[in-house]
Amino acid sequence: MNKMNPAEIVLMRKAGQITRDALNYIETLIRPGISTLELDKCAKKFIIDSGATPSFLGYEGFPASICASPNDMVVHGIPSADIILKEGDIISIDLGVIYKGYNGDAARTFPVGKITSAKQRLIDVTRECFFEGVKNLKVGHRLGEMSHAIQEHAEKNGYSVVRELVGHGIGKKMHEPPNVPNYGKVTDGPLVTENACIAIEPMINMGKRNIWLLEDGWGIVTQDGLPSAHYENTVLITKDGVEILTL
Ligand code: MG
Q1: N or C: which end of the chain has fewer CB within 10 A?
Q2: Ligand 1: distance of its center to the CA of 197 in Å?
Q3: Which pLDDT does position 93 carry in this prediction?
């Protein structure tokens, strides 16, 4: 795990605030009739106007500043003028920024207009999974205690956890060691250390956990076509607990 000094922590906090503010702004734009490309354009402008850089743009060739993943899409949706949100959809927005060399990364799943109670429950439980994880993230303990808590909360609610994609360390790079899975045994993973930053990001499916990669090489969808939700924050681990940098 990385170890941030006090000056770096200040920059991680600022990167986290810009990430949070950009997501809050995008939330205000979500409505039936808007395209995911329009959301991407607005996010890019907001991030740049905030003095940061959209970290997703150009990352391993990704063509946009946000990932916009509706309904059965789990993550990594490429924004498009052809994807128009409609009443009853859910849409996961994942967004990252670099501020003075430090990264913030966060995701939310939003309702589009009025959604079914089943979809709302998926969104709520996915967010709860994050917080169940955080409760079990403690310095000197195995990271697996957190991962296990996330899986347990998802499965006890009848959902499944995506395995192929995981959270990650974060700092000067968006993706740093260690892997931060949303499943596993309490004895798995490294020991949790102080002043480390990680991104915790449960991806929870309403049906089975299995996924496909789309032909565009990015989009990930559920094989059973049922909805999936995503909730992510960048956090700083301190000796007293966890500081959530993107809330
Ligand atoms: Mg991430």
Answers
A1: C
A2: 12
A3: 98
Angle between helices 143-156 and 117-135 (to 10 degrees): 160
With beta carbons less than 8 A apart as the criterion, state whether 12 and 3 touch: no
CA 9 to chain CA centroid, Å, is 20
**How many CB atoms lie under 10 A from the CB of residue 158?**
11
Q: How far is the CA of 198 from the centre of ligand 1 (A)?
A: 9
Separation of 87 CA from ligand 1 center, angstroms? 27
Does the pTM exceed 0.70?
A: yes
Tokens of 18: 């810009």
Write out pLDDT tens, residues 109-157. 999 999 999 999 999 999 999 999 999 999 999 999 999 999 999 999 9
Q: How far is the CA of 6 from the centre of ligand 1 (A)?
A: 23
Tell how far the Cα of 91 is from the centroid of ligand 1, in angstroms. 16
Q: Helix, strand or coil for residue 25?
A: helix
Convert the pLDDT of each residue in 58-106 to its tens digit: 999 999 999 999 999 999 999 999 999 999 999 999 999 999 999 999 9
